[in-house]
Amino acid sequence: MSERIPMSRRSFLVTSIGAALVAPSLGSAQARLPVEDWNVSAPGARGIPAGWEPYETPGGHPAYDFVMVEAEGRRALQLQSPSAHSTIAKRLRIDLEKVPMLEWSWKVLTLPTGGDVRRRETADVAADVLVVWPRFPALLRSRLIGYAWDASAPVGTVIKNPKTSMVTFVIVESGSSRLGQWITERRNVAADYRRIFGEMPPAPGVIALSIDTNDTRSYAESVVGAIAFTTG
């Protein structure tokens, strides 16, 4: 999986820095700041969902084979990847001091055959939720943490994308033992940023979703539910 953003996407990354700061109400014991609940688009809607943009990668051959579904009582986005690399992105700006935890639900149905992010020639993932810190020049200095479901790399693996040092994968699920199950993940993005980059995190400017099978030339399928930042 390559996340080198071509020139056409540079303006997306740079201008997203100027997005309005989204601040939650902290009146309750635990604040929840929704990023996406998929309720804008009707079930059956296909392609890039409302509020999101294409986030193209060189050689990715994006198919954007996405469809809005009602899955077991929840609205979700189903992603399919036939030998493609499809990534979409949404602009935001989150105050990680107030809401450091990223929470999302997902279900993987099919893993890319032979996928393994540790090797350049097989760096495909069934699902990837990326937090992006755009930095100028965007093609060289932006930072991305990708929370991925990999076919092979063990849970807990933290590794630079073998194709670009801008992306650091954090493997939160691995293999087939939990295929077909809804799983809710929670990650302390602020802590992960400090651990990976050795400094306090600025406000991220973009969140992205990706499904990737262009290296293994195989097929993957996953479903992504609600996404939010919380106080912890």
Provide structural commentary.
There is one protein chain. The strands form 2 sheets. The protein has a 7-stranded mixed sheet with strand order 2-5-12-7-8-10-9, with helices on one face. Strands 1, 3, 4, 6, 11 and 13 form a 6-stranded antiparallel sheet that branches. It has one domain: Sandwich (Jelly Rolls). The chain is built from 3 helices and 13 strands; from the N terminus they run H-E-E-E-E-E-E-E-H-E-E-E-E-H-E-E. The longest helix is centred in the first third of the chain and has 9 residues, at 7-15. 43% of the residues are buried. With 232 residues, it is mostly beta strands. A hairpin with a 6-residue loop joins strand 9 (158-160) and strand 10 (167-174). The protein has helices at residues 7-15, 138-141, 189-197, and strands spanning 32-36, 53-54, 65-71, 74-82, 85-91, 101-110, 127-133, 143-150, 158-160, 167-174, 183-188, 206-212, 219-230.
Question: What key attributes describe this structure?
Answer:
globular, 232 residues, 6-stranded antiparallel beta sheet, 7-stranded mixed beta sheet, Jelly Rolls, 9% helix, 3 helices, 39% strand, disordered N terminus
